[in-house]
């Protein structure tokens, strides 16, 4: 084997080693991965007793989450079935009207808030800093969740409670492509 062919063989071997290392490397989520529009696919809650319906969002949830590059976000989630309620001609309507029960049902099946977001690459977490919310008590609230983006799927994971009654909530989102 000549010196030139040996050098080519070594270069090829090095290239294969680098290629295999990159192919097997774990890709970390980056801030830019979150930017875009996401559709809620599902919410799952795991408790020590097994899977359960999310106590806050209920079942059959739908939603939309938007992250922009400047650091703003907006999220809306609704679950069914939603009560029928006509759009009022004025707001606010007088309290105690005939639609009070339906309004409670509407509030119980819809959730929304918006604000700014920050990303911690080391922890792979996103924190929402609420600036406006359906529930007034959430103004200025902060919510941190682990986030992983793989392809067109984004998964939030949040653990609540303490063992042995700890629950793990997982929200799975799918990127919506531009029309």
Describe the structure in your own words.
The chain is an alpha+beta fold. The chain has one domain: Beta Barrel (Lipocalin). 20% of the residues lie in helices and 41% in strands. Strands 1-3-4-5-6-7-8-9 form an eight-stranded antiparallel beta barrel. β6 (125-133) and β7 (142-150) form a beta hairpin. It is globular and about 90 Å long. The N and C termini lie far apart (58 Å). The model is unreliable at 9-23 (pLDDT under 50).
Quick synopsis:
The protein has helices at residues 3-24, 31-34, 100-108, and strands at 36-47, 50-52, 62-67, 72-78, 110-120, 125-133, 142-150, 153-160, 167-175. It is 20% helix and 41% strand.
Main beta sheet, described?
Answer: 8 strands, antiparallel, barrel
What is the residue-averaged pLDDT?
84
- CATH architecture, please? Beta Barrel
Tally of strands: 9
Please give the count of helices. 3
Number of domains: 1
Beta-sheet strand percentage?
35-45%
The top level CATH class name: Mainly Beta
């Amino acid at each position: 084997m000549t010196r030139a062919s040996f050098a080519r063989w070594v270069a090829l071997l090095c290239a294969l080693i680098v290629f295999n290392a990159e192919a097997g490397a774990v890709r970390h989520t980056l801030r830019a991965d979150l930017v875009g529009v996401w559709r809620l696919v599902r919410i799952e809650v795991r408790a020590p007793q097994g899977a359960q319906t999310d106590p806050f969002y209920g079942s059959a949830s739908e939603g939309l989450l938007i992250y922009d590059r400047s650091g703003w976000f907006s999220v809306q989630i609704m679950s069914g079935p939603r009560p029928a309620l006509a759009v009022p001609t004025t707001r606010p309507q007088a309290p105690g009207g005939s639609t009070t029960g339906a309004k409670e049902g509407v509030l119980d099946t819809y959730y929304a808030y918006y604000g700014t977001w920050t990303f911690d690459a080391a922890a792979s977490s996103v924190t929402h800093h609420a600036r406006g919310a359906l529930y007034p008590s959430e103004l200025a609230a902060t919510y941190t969740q682990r986030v992983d983006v793989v392809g067109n799927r984004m998964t939030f994971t949040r653990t609540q409670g303490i063992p042995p009654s700890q629950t793990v909530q997982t929200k799975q989102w799918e990127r919506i492509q531009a029309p």
